[in-house]
Design a protein that fits this description.
about 375 residues; alpha/beta; Aspartate Aminotransferase, domain 2; Aspartate Aminotransferase, domain 1; 2 domains; binds pyridoxal-5'-phosphate
């Protein structure tokens, strides 16, 4: 069925739904490890929940429909998804990744994948020439856009063209924009990754991860991997994700509105030195973002005049919690230097501009006046 986005958030593409069985409007949580077989060689389609579980399958179908993918795979966290993704590669392979990625991805690449003899070039994909880093061992380009936390916008179409030209794959971690604002597969990417913990779940209450594949060939590899490595999402967490996605469009619109209001306020505040938000007209990534996304999202990063002020803000907000994570109903303030990006090597942090004066804000769905009032009292009590 060719539903529009908001409808897909409730029904996916409208394929098989449990309603036919019981009439349940809320998809049931199939809390079962295994399934009975009528006889040898016959199966209901479900054999053992590591392979597949109906609740997980429903979450996967919905996410696949939102990204316009061939299939989707639900993992126990974003990092579990990226770890499974790295199983596509073998010793000797080389990947080009943006240097400004989620810190956990860099930690995985540098400490686990490198041990498995996979090598990386961590470059600035929004500025450097990606093509010049490709060699005969290169198998993939891995990007986030906007990047985390510096909000650089990478041109997805251009990256996809480069990947195609060299017969390698383009992987996009689409967590920051969510499928509501950005669909990398439709711009030529081969694989999309999500931390479902963030906007898809949307309520700061569960961890999840997704991989969405553009082709049958890649889907088959992931279907094999998820059953083999056993990091699939549990039935209850799948249900939380299904429920969270129902309101994705409403949350994304409201959170973006709040991010814009906070960005406007921060730009007017003398103690704030820089605001990184792609939705500011004239800012570095604005035009590319507009050309490839349906919005600018609700993540923003800002630099304050001193480390002391940064630390003061983090302990002085009364409404906004100082907490790692993003994409939920609650606005959160994060300190990349000691939280999300603590394990990123110092030289990469300096290259990216992640200093001890940089704060990241994920706008939630509160009243924007309350958010601004809280930030104002925190900044001005310094
Ligand atoms: C949080 C995050 C991850 C990791 O996801 P988890 O669900 O925390 O394991 C990966 N990529 C990005 C961009 C993230 O924000």
């Amino acid at each position: 069925m060719d539903y529009k986005f908001s409808t897909k958030c409730l029904y996916g593409n409208g394929e098989k739904n449990d309603k036919e069985l019981t009439g349940a409007i809320s998809f049931p949580i199939y809390q079962t490890a295994t399934y009975a077989h009528p006889e040898v060689g016959k199966s209901t389609g479900f054999d053992y929940s590591r392979l597949q579980n109906p609740t997980r399958e429903q979450a996967e179908k919905i996410v696949a429909s939102l990204e316009g993918g061939d299939d989707a795979f639900a993992f126990s966290s974003g990092m579990a998804a990226i770890t499974a993704l790295m199983e596509l590669f073998k010793p000797g392979d080389h990947l080009i990744t943006d240097a400004d990625l989620y810190g956990g991805s860099i930690r995985l690449f540098n400490n686990v994948s490198e041990k498995n003899a996979i090598s990386f070039s961590h470059i600035n994909c929004s500025q450097e020439d990606i093509e010049s880093f490709i060699n005969e061992k290169t198998k993939a380009i891995f990007i986030e856009t906007p990047t985390n936390p510096m909000m650089n916008v990478v041109d997805i179409r251009k990256s996809a063209e480069i990947a195609k030209r060299h017969n390698i794959i383009l992987i996009v971690d689409n967590t920051f924009m969510s499928p509501y604002f950005q669909n990398p597969l439709k711009l030529g990417a081969d694989i999309v990754v999500h931390s479902g913990t963030k906007f898809l779940g949307g309520h700061n209450d569960t961890l999840a991860g997704f991989i969405v594949s553009a082709s049958k060939e890649i889907s088959e590899k992931f279907r094999f991997l998820i059953k083999t490595v056993g990091s699939g999402l549990s039935p209850f967490d799948s249900w939380l994700i299904i429920r969270g996605i129902k309101t994705l469009p409403l949350r994304m619109e409201k959170a973006q509105e709040n991010a814009k209001a906070v960005a406007r306020y921060l730009l007017s505040e003398p103690k704030i030195k820089k605001v990184y938000y792609p939705g500011i007209p004239g800012s570095k990534g604005y035009e590319i973002c507009k050309s490839q996304s349906r919005g600018f999202g609700s993540m923003l990063t800002f630099e304050v005049e001193s480390k002391e002020l940064a630390l003061h803000i983090l302990k002085s907000t009364k409404l906004i919690p100082f907490a790692e994570s993003l994409g939920g109903t609650e606005t959160l303030l994060t300190y990349p230097a000691t939280q999300t990006h603590a394990d990123v090597p110092e030289d990469i942090k300096i290259k990216n501009g992640i200093t001890d004066k940089v704060l990241r804000l994920s706008a939630g769905i509160e009243d924007p006046e309350d958010l601004i009032k809280d930030l104002k009292q925190a900044i001005n009590s310094f």
